[in-house]
Write a structure and sequence with these properties.
The chain is 27% helix and 27% strand. The protein has 286 residues and is of the alpha/beta class. The strands form two sheets. Strands 1-2-4-6-8-9-10-11-12-13-14 form an eleven-stranded parallel sheet.
């Protein structure tokens, strides 16, 4: 698709692009900047944009952005993504990583969800560091553990997520083998005001398999809610949170074991000592 020099969409608020191929970088930039009141942009595709090297999304009114790639070839190898969106509140990225990221003026960002599929190329590992740095103002962050593993492999210091109050992990079982729990604790240490921690789809076992003696400051001062879904053991990491989270108000655990084990583990969980005197343990049997 070619976007002419003089183009304007003065009333367009929502734009969904699915498998649209642009002829050059300027056409990409002109389309997004010409939408004067754009609030939501969704880019979904399965084929690489072969005629472009940069995806420039610069728009002062944009509030919600989703980039979703549905194939395993092409995009993660040669594109640079530039996002300049001072009004952006919600950012979702389901993709291979691009060649590079430049994220500007994301001061209004509240929610971000990142799902990254491959961590093997060196440039991808550096790029994930730039991605995390660009969204460091976020308040609620959802990531897969492989993003964190890629970040630590490129030996970059973690940004401090001063505004982050909710952190959610979803598991990708085929990638997360060999994960080091110390990396997870370092992320918690870089989130000094964290209040809610959520583990989805078995991520709890991946991230907390061997908890260390180090206790992040947020556990000692402000973490209020921990939610664990598809819990399958072991018990030691649960004990770690109950022992050290002095401000904890609720620990929610969803178990998917057979009934006999559920009953046994429920009793064991309820008997674990708690540092917080106001902590309530909620167990959901499925």
């Amino acid at each position: 698709m070619t976007v002419p020099t003089k183009v304007c969409f003065p009333n367009l608020k929502t734009l969904h692009l699915e498998n649209v191929n642009f002829v050059d970088n300027d056409s990409v930039r002109r389309l997004f900047s010409s939408c004067l009141v754009l609030e939501e942009l969704v880019i979904c595709y399965s084929d690489p944009w072969q005629d472009t090297t940069e995806i420039n999304i610069s728009n002062p009114s944009l509030k919600r952005l989703t980039i979703r790639y549905t194939d395993s070839d092409g995009f993660g190898h040669h594109h640079r993504i530039v996002i300049d969106a001072p009004s952006l509140v919600d950012f979702k990225f389901f993709d291979l990583l691009a060649r590079g990221f430049l994220l500007l003026n994301l001061h209004s960002l509240v929610n971000a969800r990142l799902e990254y599929l491959f961590v093997f190329q060196d440039f991808n590992q550096v790029t994930v560091a730039n991605l995390l740095k660009g969204i460091s103002n976020v308040q609620s962050l959802s990531v897969t553990p492989d993003i964190l593993r890629a970040f630590f492999r490129c030996n970059k210091p973690l940004p401090v997520f001063c505004n982050l109050v909710c952190l959610e992990f979803a598991d990708t079982e085929d990638i997360c083998e060999g994960y080091a729990p110390t990396e997870f604790l370092e992320l918690l240490e870089s989130s000094p005001n964290l209040e809610t921690l959520i583990f989805d789809d078995g991520a709890f076992e991946v991230l907390t398999s061997n908890p260390s003696e180090k206790v992040p400051s947020c556990l000692l001062s402000c973490l209020k809610v921990v939610e664990i879904y598809s819990f399958g053991g072991p018990m030691k990491p649960v004990e770690y949170f109950l022992k050290n989270a002095s401000a904890l108000e609720k620990l929610k655990i969803e178990m998917d074991w057979e009934m006999k084990k559920q009953d046994e583990m429920k009793m064991e969980l309820l008997m674990l000592p708690r540092e917080s005197k106001i902590c309530q343990v909620e167990i959901v049997l499925t």
